[in-house]
Amino acid sequence: MSSLWEFVVLVGGATNQVLGYLDRHHWFFGFVVVGSIFYLHDKSLHARFDPIDKRLDEIRTRPACGS
């Protein structure tokens, strides 16, 4: 029973340290979240415009007069 209690105390202490770290360094995780949002937004914009660029490249390579 004492080993179970020691395990609970160990998990509680580790949780307390992790939450304390997050409390002191929350700004870092904010930068990570904002950076990932900008990265995903930029990736989605490129995914939208890549097919348009491909179509424009096809139109530019076609001859002006089809003969």
Can you describe this structure?
The protein has one domain. The protein has two helices and no strands. With 67 residues, it is mostly helical. It starts with a helix and ends in a 6-residue tail after the last helix. The chain is rod-shaped.
Overview in brief:
This protein is mainly α and 67 residues long.
Attribute tags:
single chain, 67 residues, mainly alpha, 2 helices
Topology:
Blueprint: H1 2-24, H2 26-61
SSE order in H/E notation? HH
Mean pLDDT: 83
Question: Biggest sheet, in brief?
Answer: none
How does the overall form come out from the CA principal axes? rod-shaped
How many structural domains are formed by the residues? 1
| N→C terminal distance | 90 Å
- Beta-strand proportion: under 5%
Count of individual helical segments: 2
Rg for CA atoms: 27 Å
> What structural class do the secondary elements suggest?
mainly alpha
Which runs of at least 5 residues are low in confidence (pLDDT < 50)? none
Would you report the number of β strands?
0
Relative helix content: over 70%
